[in-house]
Design brief:
Blueprint lengths: L8 H10 L4 H22 L4 E3 L9 E2 H16 L1 H25 L1 H27 L9 H21 L7 H24 L1
Antiparallel strand pairs: 1-2
Length: 194
């Protein structure tokens, strides 16, 4: 059933969905959001160690790990099933990002991350400007946009591929809220023109 406050998936998904209603823009985000998270894990490998524990394969408890735990925990709180999958994907990004970072070294890793981030962000901004014709969600709520983007695209993929809903009626309720938000945005845009 629906949760309230910080863990209100319907509210978060409706906010994010209002900025991502065009199918081409959604597809672009599906291609680029997780690589942004992955490459963030790569560069965060070089942050200071928070807890000194011997882990295999050069894994360290650093800010990359902390961010992974926050993302994974938040996603599980939003929806146990899809959130567990998203959390697992976050940990896979952290492990393989750490592995790649260790093997590239900082002097090469930052260049790879920069190129990938620029490419992925450019693709998403093109998706918003050309197809969505609406500014990205991050301009209205930076934290929510960054935190929800990976989960949003995963839920979209699960819904498209398997008809997944966190609970019965979720997508119908979210669609109604998204449609209302878009209508309100278009009306306010029209008023500004006058």
């Amino acid at each position: 059933m629906a949760k309230i406050g910080l863990f209100d998936l319907e509210k978060h998904f409706s906010f994010y969905g209002a900025y991502h209603s065009n199918p081409v823009n959604i597809f672009i985000h599906m291609l680029f959001v997780w690589p942004i998270l992955f490459t963030s894990s790569v560069i965060l490998y070089f942050t200071p160690t928070l807890v000194h524990v011997s882990l295999p394969n050069n894994l360290v408890f650093n800010y990359g790990f902390l961010l992974t735990v926050i993302y994974a925990g938040f996603y599980v709180c939003l929806d146990v099933k899809a959130g567990s999958l998203a959390g697992l994907l976050c940990f896979i990004c952290w492990v393989f990002g750490s592995f790649l970072a260790h093997h590239l070294g900082f002097s090469l890793a930052w260049k790879v991350v920069l190129a990938a981030q620029l490419f992925c962000w450019t693709g998403q901004f093109i998706g918003h400007g050309v197809f969505e014709k609406r500014a990205p969600a991050l301009l209205d709520n930076l934290t929510q946009a960054f935190l929800m983007a990976p989960f949003f695209v995963l839920l979209e993929a699960l819904q498209m591929a398997f008809g997944y809903e966190p609970y019965p009626g979720f997508h119908a309720r979210v669609k109604a809220k998204v449609d209302a938000n878009i209508k309100e945005w278009k009306e306010s845009k029209q008023k500004k023109k006058l």
